[in-house]
Design goal:
The protein is α/β, with parallel strands linked by helices and 248 residues long. A 7-stranded parallel sheet has the order 3-2-1-4-5-6-7, with helices on both faces. The protein has one domain: NAD(P)-binding Rossmann-like Domain (Rossmann fold), CATH 3.40.50.720. The relative contact order is 0.15. α1 crosses α8 and α4 packs parallel to α6. It is globular, with a radius of gyration of 17 Å. 45% of the residues lie in helices and 15% in strands. The chain binds nicotinamide-adenine-dinucleotide (NAD). The site of nicotinamide-adenine-dinucleotide (NAD) has 30 residues, from α1, β2 and α4.
C-alpha cells in the first residue's frame, strides 16, 4: 500500500491512542512521519523502532502545541530534516469534564488552549510551508460532541465546535493554494481518553450508537488516511462523522 508515498506528515498527539493509530497507518502507506507530543509512553520507542525496521521514517519531537515558539521551532526542524510538510493532522486533545457550575477557569482555559489554540498555532505555522509548496492536506480531529453537545463537556464541546468553524474558515482561505482542510468528528473511540468513562456513561453512549459498538482507533485512521491522500483532492471544508451513526 502506498497512498502516501513520498509524503511527509506531522501528527500531533501521536504518541498514543488515535494519534498512534494514524501514525501506524501513515507509515504503512509510505509516509515519513514527525510525531509531536508532550508525553511519550514507555512503549513508544519500541513502536517507533518497529516502523523504522520496516524501512519507515519516523521522528518524535517533544512539543507542547500550546506554545507558539515551540511549534515554530519544531516545524522548522521538520521542514529542514524532511524537506517538506505535506500533511498535518491536528489530533492532540484533552478533556477536563465537569458540570458547568463546577467548571473552573483553568478547566475551560486548558481545554481551549490545547484543542483549539494548539490546532491554530500548528495550522498557521505549517500553512506557510504548504502555501510555498502550493499543496497540502490538513485534517482536524474534532468530535461528535462538537456537533451535538454533551452534558459535563461544555469546555470540550465548545473547543471541538470551534475547531469545525476553524476548519471551514481555513479551508476557504487556503483553497486557492491547493490546500485541503477537513475535520473528522469521531464518536466513542476506545482509548485512554475514554477509559475514564463510567459504566453508566458508556451505556448511555452505546444506546445512541445505531451500530451498537465503539470505534477502534484504526477506524478513525482509515478516514484520516483517505483525507490525507490524493483520493480526497476534491473534498475540502467538510466534517466527516465517524461515529457508528450517532449523528445523522
Ligand atoms: N477517544 C474518543 O472517544 C474521542 C472521540 C472524539 C474525539 N476524540 C479526539 O481525538 C483526539 C485523540 O484522542 P485520544 O482518545 O487518542 O486521546 P489520548 O488522550 O489517548 O491522546 C491524546 C494525545 O495528545 C497528547 N497531548 C495532550 N496535550 C498536548 C499538547 N499540549 N501538545 C502536544 N500533545 C498533547 C497527549 O500526550 C496524548 O498522547 C483528541 O483530539 C480527542 O479529543 C477522541
Amino acid at each position: 500500500m502506498s497512498q502516501l508515498k513520498d509524503k511527509t506528515a506531522i501528527v500531533t498527539g501521536g504518541a498514543r491512542g488515535i494519534g498512534r493509530a494514524i501514525v501506524e497507518q501513515f507509515a504503512d502507506e509510505g509516509a515519513a512521519i514527525a510525531v509531536f507530543d508532550v508525553a511519550f509512553p514507555d512503549d513508544f520507542e519500541g513502536f517507533a523502532n518497529g516502523i523504522r525496521e520496516k524501512g519507515g521514517k519516523l521522528e518524535a519531537y517533544t512539543v507542547d502545541i500550546t506554545s507558539s515558539e515551540a511549534v515554530e521551532e519544531a516545524c522548522s526542524t521538520v521542514a529542514a530534516d524532511f524537506g517538506s510538510i505535506d500533511i498535518l493532522v491536528n489530533n492532540a486533545g484533552i478533556t477536563r469534564d465537569k458540570l458547568l457550575l463546577r467548571m473552573g477557569d483553568d478547566d475551560w482555559d486548558k481545554v481551549m488552549e490545547v484543542n483549539l489554540k494548539g490546532s491554530f498555532l500548528m495550522t498557521r505555522t505549517v500553512a506557510k510551508t504548504m502555501m510555498r509548496q502550493r499543496k497540502g492536506k490538513i485534517v482536524n480531529i474534532s468530535s461528535v460532541v462538537g456537533v451535538m453537545g454533551n452534558a459535563g463537556q461544555s469546555n470540550y464541546s465548545a473547543s471541538k465546535a470551534g475547531l469545525i468553524g476553524f476548519t471551514k474558515s481555513t479551508a476557504k482561505e487556503l483553497a486557492s493554494r491547493n490546500i485541503n482542510v477537513n475535520a473528522i468528528a469521531p464518536g466513542y473511540v476506545e482509548t485512554e481518553m475514554t477509559h475514564v468513562l463510567s459504566e453508566e456513561q458508556l451505556k448511555a453512549f452505546l444506546n445512541i450508537i445505531p451500530l451498537k459498538r465503539g470505534c477502534s482507533p484504526k477506524e478513525i485512521a482509515d478516514t484520516v488516511t483517505f483525507l490525507a491522500s490524493e483520493k480526497s483532492d476534491y473534498i475540502t471544508g467538510q466534517v466527516i462523522n465517524v461515529d457508528g451513526g450517532m449523528i445523522m
